Amino acid sequence: MPSSLLPAFLRSCSLLCGLLLWLVGCSPSTPTPKYTIGFSQCTNGDAWRQAMLAGMQKELSFYPEVRFRIKDAHDDSRLQEKQIREFLNEKVDLLIVSANEAEPVTPIVEEAFNRGIPVIILDRRTTSKLYTAYVGGNNLEVGKAAGNYVGNLLEGRGNVLEVLGAPGASPAVDRHRGFAQALASYPGLHLVAQVHGDWKRPSVMQRLPAVLRQHPDINLIFAHNDRMALGAYQVCKQLGLDGRVKVIGVDGLPGPHGGIQFVQDGVLSATMLYPPGGEEAIRTAIKILRHEAYDKENTLSTMVIDSTNVLTMKLQTEKLTSQLQDIQRQQRLLQQQRDTYASQQTVLYVLAAALLGAAVLGLLVWRAFRANRRFNRQLGEQNQEILSQRNQIQEFAERARVETEAKLRFFTNFSHELRTPLTLILGPVEEMLTSGPELPSAQRHDLGLIRRNAQRLLQLVNQLMDFRKIDVGKMPVRATEGNLVAFVREIMDVFERPARQRGISLRFLPAEPVIPLWFDVNILDKVFFNLLSNALKFTPDRGHITVSIQPVPAERLVRVSVEDDGRGISDEDKAHIFEWFYQGQQSVAKGSGMGLALALGLTRLHQGQLSFTSQPGKGSTFVVTLPLELPAELRSANAPVVASPAFALDEGIMPQLPAHEAMASLASGGTSEALVLVIEDNPEVNAFLTQKLQPHFQVSAAFDGATGLRLAAESIPDLIICDVMLPELSGLEVVAQLKGDWRTSHIPVVLLTARNAPEQQVEGVQAGADLYLTKPFNPTFLLESLRTLLANREKQREHFRRELSVDTATVAPQRVDQKFLADLTAIVEANLNRSDLSVEDVARSLGISRVQLYRKVKAVLGTGVTDFIQGIRLTKARQLLLDDELTIAEVAYQLGFSSPSYFSTSFKARYQVSPSEFRAMHTTAG
């Protein structure tokens, strides 16, 4: 080394040693803070706040040069103001404020901003614009998203209750305003009540029950956060409303007690995602401290989390949590490396004099810091990638939800549109086939061909609907306990005749006479019907079909096998036999390709298995394996509601009468005085119904619900036939208004519709319909049903007449008709002394016309208004004649008779004794 460089080298070594000694005195595991950020929050007990704080801590792990201080005011705005002032006195570099109430902290926030300290408002805005940046969700958009979702969920019709946050809180105000604006787009939705909470569950548990009792017709509850939504669900469960009232909330936090878990468990129908914004607040703060470009308004996006995307959201949040744990683990490893580095510095303190060791240590320090920066940069890139993936997942989930809803609406509307023309095809065909033996055989054959193919089309429509229900999870299992052997035997009876016509031997071999099993009648009916129909189709004439049932107690299973000796299944077709719309390469009897696929889907829905074995040329065997017991959630305590048959053989699918019985029924007893009102928007179906009913009844028609209601109130018909799918006012709403109006409450209503699902039929009956018929319908069956309803109405009139003959006071008005009779009787009794009491006077007191009163009394009691008034007077006369202090003439004038002689004549005509004889008989008895 040149001597001129030696002093410089020694000075460098001395400086390096001094630097090493100084590094040893410092703690390398804790870098010197460069910035201090103060965070003032007004509560720490809220799960949403905890999630926000967790997001801040995660983001701060990338910035070791930042010192982060937290002060919590615990819902005390005055204490928060004091704590913010303490931060100002400590001269923090940046201030983040999350307030509970906006107005109390606005002055101190403005003071901090005016003093040059950057202020970030997190989540809840202040009433001033003097702040550096805002980070938080758009509560107005959250409310709008909730309102739009409620409109779609309730199909634009229903009653809604809103559970608001703390009064005066800006999130509560904005969410309510956005929710109300969205509901305004749905005239059928009504915000009938509000409950003010304080963002916590106990307040809802205390205040909500009274409101729900006042409004029992609530369909949905919208709570401003998930904790209050959980309280609303628990209140509904206590009141027995959890099966009817839907609950949605706001926040959508992950974890076992978060909104995402509540949606997955079925506690909430949906929750609005409201990101805490902790990470975004720290990122914005770093940009401000580093004098980088930033946005003053940082509005976080929201989305709906419901059953369509909750699983995706949960998986995503779990993945984020897992990655956060990986980051924390890597941070711990990094800390261990720093601790190792500190121990190495201690060793270097002993070897400080060794220049070579110092140089090596310096190199290690440089490389460690470089690796640290690279590692932090990689973590940042991973975090950005995760956020990007999350946004993509949200977009995909929303797109899938919209597409699923569009498909379901398409199939539903498609089914309805097909059923209406099928009604116009099958109705006249059935009428012609039952018109008598004079129909030529060639025409009868052609009509039978038309009927079979129309029924085949209806079968395909039903299969398509079942396919869509399984695809979107809309087909529930309602199992009841029954005898599987008897159930299968009943299905086989349907195939007995066509098998006998082709000489096919149909054998039934149950291992035991009774095999108890929990099963859904409607689901297994379609499964076994499909398998037997398939076997009958591919079994040659004079072949054999064997159905056997074998319980397996050791495995808690039962196996039902359907074996045939047909052509079998080729090896090419075996791999695709259960695929939708697959018909097979060697199939001669072409079908829709949906039967076996539908049977497989229904069997799996029933928690069973469907398998098969086959040899080409020797036949096939299909085996249905079912568990002996089903979980409690799949069981139903009610008797099974058997749906309309989904499949049909050549005999047809609709109720039919033999030809001679149908003719006798049409020819006998058609009451031409009865008036039938038809409400149907399809002109052809309306004309068809009018044509079939006019030979037997008087018929009037309407093409929409509003007109039908008006005609019903004016003419008081004896019976109403109404379609469900009507423009503007639906058939269910028409039925509800008819049954709620005492003028029309007595009129039997027949709902005629293409909606054939069991739950839709139950909905129609619950609305008040006396009969629910699905399209296509049998005209003969419809006529017989109308006659039965009218006959039952006559029996009801006799019941009311007997009630009125016992005493002048009618029974308690528990129904609308009884309420009408009670009001009518009260008016008559109040005017008994008026000899000039007329029908017009009574109608005027009731607020209706004379004609409406006459038709109402005639429909309910089968008698006229004048006869009803006379009956009340004569019944009252029997009571007054028992009083010896009143003469017969006084009784007559007191009850409004024009003369004692007219009173005596009327009394004797009614009771076969004169008033004087009646008094003598009872006086003698006394």
Automatic annotation (TrEMBL):
Residues 317-344 form a coiled coil. Residues 413-630 form the Histidine kinase domain. Residues 675-790 form the Response regulatory domain. Its EC number is 2.7.13.3. It catalyses: ATP + protein L-histidine = ADP + protein N-phospho-L-histidine. InterPro entries: CheY-like_superfamily, HATPase_C_sf, HATPase_dom, His_kinase_dom, HisK_dim/P_dom, HisK_dim/P_sf, Homeodomain-like_sf, HTH_AraC. Residues 822-921 form the HTH araC/xylS-type domain. Keywords: Coiled coil, DNA-binding, Membrane, Phosphoprotein, Transcription, Transcription regulation, Transmembrane, Transmembrane helix. GO terms for molecular function: DNA-binding transcription factor activity; phosphorelay sensor kinase activity; sequence-specific DNA binding. The modification 4-aspartylphosphate is found at residue 723. The chain crosses the membrane at residues 347-369. PANTHER family: HYBRID SIGNAL TRANSDUCTION HISTIDINE KINASE C, TWO-COMPONENT HISTIDINE KINASE. This is histidine kinase. It comes from Hymenobacter wooponensis.
